[in-house]
Amino acid sequence: MRNDTIRAAAVQIAPDLSGRQGTMDRVLNAIAEAAEKGAQLIVFPETFVPYYPYFSFVLPPVLQGPPHLKLYEEAVVVPSAETEAVADAARRRRMVIVLGVNERDHGSLYNTQLIFDADGSLVLKRRKITPTYHERMIWGQGDGAGLKVAETAVGRVGALACWEHYNPLARYALMAQHEEIHASHFPGSLVGPVFGEQIEVTMRHHALESGCFVVNATGWLTEEQIAEIHPDPKLQKGLRDGCMTCIVSPEGRHLAPPLTAGEGILIADLDMRLVTKRKRMMDSVGHYARPELLSLVHDAQPARPIHQIPDPMGAQALPSEAARDFAAEKDHV
Questions:
Q1: What pLDDT shows up at residue 313?
Q2: 200 in active site
């Protein structure tokens, strides 16, 4: 049984809608503030850098071209100067950092979670496996390679984004790897009060079922930012509320009053002994599991658009089907 205590921070702040650099400044300032409060782990909201694509929730597809292209321009490449800045902050502050970014990979964008260990190393880069509803116009799909728990200075950390938590098999993949701390995030300032209520239920349930701590961060939009995203007061209603920044114990209890409005950094101490205390009664992937009846098949291979088979003669490889067809035709002749 682990006897250590980890101080965790969950951040609820607004991005800079003008671009990546302004939001990065807010990220680094929040890391410094949390470090002064003794935090060893910090979690930021979903795709916080440069910002969550709120426009996609209130604009029809025909009008999304300009803001979507701007998001491409401001998105984060991994690695880049931005990821190096976060890695440096993690190293100097001896802090594990979980950051949500819009990742650009050539012609596609992805909803990506980055986990930096306390030595500054990037120990996990994962992409949301299924963007939700309006998000499918913005991001590509991730793969099973990202469903992985990372060994860090604060313990075994797993991560999922937003409605991935409604995919029970995705959650089970992390549970089966014995995550001790679950880092999660949602966009916040979206849908309305019901969204925050749903988030709370989901986070408390995962903590109970997994027997782990949950550190969840949601974003925030100011009234000025809401007006900037869309001028129609009726549609602006879809860009308010929906915040539930919280830190939950393996017993399903809030370790600090959750943040449901405004900006702030939630701080709580995680008594790691509670992981074993919970699992002694109910270990979903251990003594409470029935793998001979129910089990998960997890394809952990990265998805690739091309698979090359080397030519044993040293010539340039042909695609596998073309190579077989060419060989068959040659033998026939």
A1: 78
A2: no
247 Cα distance to chain centroid: 16
From 46, 74, 135, 179, the catalytic residue = 46
The pLDDT, as a whole number, for residue 155 is: 97
13: left (phi over 0), alpha (psi -120 to 50) or beta: beta
- Positions of the chain with pLDDT lower than 50, given as ranges: 326, 333
Catalytic residue among 82, 125, 148, 162: 162
Domains of the chain from N-terminus onward = 5-281 (3.60.110.10), 303-333 (no CATH)
Residue with tokens 């992985």: 148
* pLDDT value at residue 137: 96
Q: Is 128 a catalytic residue?
A: yes
Q: Which of 74, 103, 128, 148 is catalytic?
A: 128
- Both tokens of 105, joined, read 């990979």
**126 DSSP β-pair partners:** 113
Instruction: Name every residue whose Cβ is closer than 8 Å to that of residue 238 and which is 6 or more positions away in sequence.
Output: 57, 58, 190, 191, 192
User: Is 37 assigned a catalytic role?
Assistant: no
Give the model confidence (pLDDT) of 309-333 as tens digits: 988 776 555 555 555 554 555 555 4
pLDDT, residue 333, reads 44
